[in-house]
Design a protein that fits this description.
Layout lengths: L4 E2 L13 E5 L3 H13 L2 E5 L6 H7 L3 E3 L1 H7 L2 E4 L3 H12 L8 E4 L3 H4 L10 E7 L3 H9 L6 E7 L5 H11 L2 H4 L1 E3 L2 H16 L1 H16 L4 H10 L1 H19 L2 H14 L2 H15 L2 H11 L3 H11 L2 H11 L7 E4 L2 E4 L9
Parallel strand pairs: 2-3, 2-5, 3-4, 5-6, 6-7, 8-9
Antiparallel strand pairs: 1-9, 7-8, 10-11
């Protein structure tokens, strides 16, 4: 059975009329949600810690800024967009004490509800809008007149208005322009974590690094290896994005297509499928969540070690040099936890 997608005509914007939406957090997702809602005409307040560096950014964008507890008191709808590992502490201290009947508590990822870290009282509605893309994309596509698809879920509808308000929220951030799909907190959480780990982040990063290392170890130039295993990846993914695997295979050479069929299954084989099933099981039974929570609570020593090791990987060093020669890519670098424009090197085109 084909899943139903919900679009603009399925979402009544009046469900948020005369309602105030509090966006808790102003990072990648937070700033996009807040600005899209604001420009759609929704009354928005941003809840941030007193010393947050984001307070100035939100104020400069024309948004009202309050402490988290005050934002919760002022709101009818509360969207929690601080990082997963920080949500419980913020919820316990600044949100839970101020909840009142009829409010809608929302999430963009089901992690904390699904794994029982946050258990809202029965007096409030609980729902989710989970855009299928990073915040900067949610924002830029909205500004261009489009939308990023999203998942939505109604976890609890105490007031009888949760579903209508959640869909109206999805419309207000632009997602119903592309379509929203109904799910549950459990399904969204488990599939989202699996997708990140098996393909989108973990699987892709590991495949790119291993292919790069294989070529370099065989004596090929690192710069050539970078182009073949990372730079061209965007071109291929863009083809898939527009027309699926069929359009990608239509667009590449017959030689590349044949290599796809005969070599792809040798590299991504049944051993990989078995490992994927293990990864999914660890997500489903909470093993990964418990490991990540413990890691975060203990100071993130392993996380920081792994992050630093990959930052120093040769493909990153080679790639930084090559991207600096291509300013038309608008290259960026991550240094000390901050993103900044990559400096052009001598010889770069102007």
């Amino acid at each position: 059975m084909t899943a139903r997608m919900y679009y603009d005509n399925d979402a009544d914007p009046s469900a948020l009329a005369d309602q105030t939406v509090a966006i808790i957090g102003y990072g990648s997702q937070g700033h996009a949600h807040a600005l899209n809602l604001h420009e759609t005409g929704v009354d928005v307040v941003v809840g941030l810690a007193p010393g947050s560096r984001s307070r100035a950014l939100a104020s400069e964008a024309g948004l009202r800024v309050m402490d988290v507890s005050d934002a919760v008191k002022a709101a009818d709808v509360i969207m929690i967009l601080v990082p997963d590992t920080a949500q419980k502490a913020v919820y316990d201290a600044e949100i839970a004490p101020h909840l009142r009947p009829g409010q809608l508590l929302m999430f963009a990822h089901g992690f904390n509800i699904h794994f029982g870290r946050i258990d809202p009282p029965g007096i409030v509605d609980v729902g989710m809008i989970a855009p299928k893309g990073p915040g900067h994309l949610l924002r830029s596509v909205y500004q261009a007149g489009g939308g990023v698809p999203a998942l939505f879920a109604v976890h609890r509808d105490q007031s009888g208005t949760a579903r209508a308000r959640i869909l109206a929220y999805g419309r207000a951030i632009g997602s119903t322009r592309a379509g929203v799909l109904e799910t549950t907190f459990a399904e969204e959480t488990e599939t989202d974590l699996f997708g990140e780990q098996s393909v989108l982040c973990g699987g892709t990063a590991a495949l790119v690094k291993m292919a790069f290392e294989t070529l370099v170890d065989a004596g090929y130039q690192p710069e050539l290896a970078y182009f073949e295993t990372m730079h061209e990846l965007k071109l291929i993914v863009d083809l898939m994005y527009r027309g699926g695997l069929n359009f990608m295979r239509f667009s590449v050479s017959d030689t590349a297509e044949y290599g796809d069929y005969v070599s792809g299954p040798r590299i991504i084989d049944e051993h990989v499928r078995s490992t994927m099933r293990d990864v999914l099981k660890e997500i489903q039974d909470g093993t990964f969540a418990n490991r990540w929570i413990a890691e975060s609570d203990s100071g993130r020593a392993e996380f920081n070690r792994l992050r630093q090791a990959d930052r120093d990987h040769p493909i990153e060093q080679v790639g930084a040099r090559l991207r600096a020669q291509m300013p038309f890519l608008n290259p960026v670098e991550v240094q000390a936890g901050q993103v900044q424009a990559a400096a052009s090197t001598p010889g770069a085109s102007r």
